[in-house]
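Practice problem: predict the structure.
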Amino acid sequence: MKTKRSPFQPMSLLIQVAVIVLIAHFTFLAADDDTFTWRGPDGVILPFESPEAVEQFLASARVVEVQGIDMGVTHPKRLLLEKDGVRMHAVFRNLDEFKGVWQGPSGVKPNFHDSCYYELAAYRLSRLLAIDRVPPVVERAFVREDFVKAKDFGRLGKVSKGTVQAWVEGAMTEIERRKHRTRPPNMMKWLDECQTMFLWNSLTFNDDPNLGNLLIGPDWKIWLIDSTRSFRPYKELRSPEAIKRCDPRIWEKLRNLDPEILRRELSDILSKPVLDCLIARQQALVEFIRGLIGQVGEEFVVRRLGR
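Answer:
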């Protein structure tokens, strides 16, 4: 005698596969969200639900402690901030130097501007392009009352105005990764991260892309930090030959970004010649990626390997 199939019997294999695909799809969508779990010095998850919430904290929290950072030539300071019982590390930079001619290990460079405010420009640009890899930055002018200890206020030096940027706890530099021979757990995702970094350095004309400035978070996201020597006054792209692919979401933002929006968001930081060059590079980058698409096809260029 035939028995009726219960509606509660297991789904067919085809339906089960479809459900698994849908779950994976939405899991990846959630993973691509701009939200990031910020942590304090003790590893405690901080109650920030948006980048704007981090910005508000950076702009208003008191300084508990100031320490030097034993890396780089710009002498940034690491701050321990506290507000309403929440503690977070941050980086304070106050360098803003312009030289008509600068000579360094990489050669002679005209119109050289090394500025902490380029960190703020980088953060704003990253938000416009959905590149959620620049830690939140605010401009801030400190006064004595912002510090728990008077001597820490003095440790900022003669210039107490600059930029404050969120600190990524548990991160390592590429120098440290290579020293300890640590391999990425997901090589395809790591290659995606590197491609986004190549695109970013080319667009912003990062003039200091050394291994110490390549910061890797505990989730293996590459954080794009130390942009003080970016935004050089050149219209051509920097090392575009490294770019082979582009994240679909970034590609959509990049090709649809109105130059007038760039002017509105960045004209208070970047001079007109520098901003004009950034807009020229944006357009050149769009054409470069379109050229790649024409050569090998969009499905091979506008894609992510690790998703």
